[in-house]
Design goal:
204 residues, alpha/beta, Rossmann fold, six-stranded mixed β-sheet, 8 helices
Length: 204
């Protein structure tokens, strides 16, 4: 579970936590990444940084992901994008995100919007994740959670349950056949060593 805000009362985190409760009821094991302390990409650090290593280990471990971001200035937050930027397309000859499932969610302080979930979908496709069709966009998020941080009964909550159920279904249905989705001719003819050299080449 990735969320895109470090506020004490982060609605993107609360939304992710609500989703996690549903996933656990459905039998999934859920782990969160706390983005606090994650450095900016190319800001004098590399993948050896503890927070970067933690994030990459979680991506490698999981079968599916949930990305939950606030919408700020009509887009995902910089914190959300930084987390995704640290997820590599390849680690050596292994693509850690390829073929795994993804659900996208956003929270807004005002009226309902889909800017952020649309951007997250583009990134999910770029990362070669199987992004599920359903999605969650919670408007006026400040009014959708009680004092304890639990989501109130509403159509927004019902949609969140729909999204988590769909994520589990897609994960289970594709678990044993995901190699078929990611089997590409261009990669079969390229050796693991050549792939590693190409995708890990120094960037300008």
């Amino acid at each position: 579970m990735l969320y895109g805000s470090l506020r004490d009362r982060s609605y993107s985190r609360l939304c992710a936590e609500e989703g996690a409760r549903i996933l656990e009821r459905l039998g999934a094991e859920v782990r969160f990444f706390n983005p606090s302390g994650l450095p900016l990409v190319d800001d004098g650090v590399d993948a050896g940084h503890p927070k970067v290593a933690e994030l990459r280990d979680l991506v490698t471990w999981c079968e599916g992901m949930v990305w939950s971001s606030p919408e700020r200035h009509g887009a995902m937050t910089g914190m959300m994008k930084t987390q995704i930027d640290w997820i590599p397309l390849s680690l050596g000859g292994v693509r850690p995100a390829q073929g795994k499932t993804l659900a996208v969610m956003q929270v807004s302080g005002g009226s309902q919007s889909f800017n952020t979930v649309n951007q997250l979908r583009i990134l999910g496709r770029w990362m070669r994740l199987l992004t599920i069709p359903n999605q969650s966009s919670v408007a006026r998020a400040w009014d959708e959670f009680d004092e304890a941080g639990r989501m109130k009964p509403s159509s927004f909550y019902n949609r969140l349950v729909d999204v988590m159920e769909e994520l589990v279904r897609f994960t289970v249905l594709t678990r044993d056949i995901k190699d078929k989705f990611v089997d590409r001719y261009s990669e079969r003819v390229e050796s693991r060593e050549e792939l590693s050299k190409r995708v890990n080449a120094p960037k300008g």
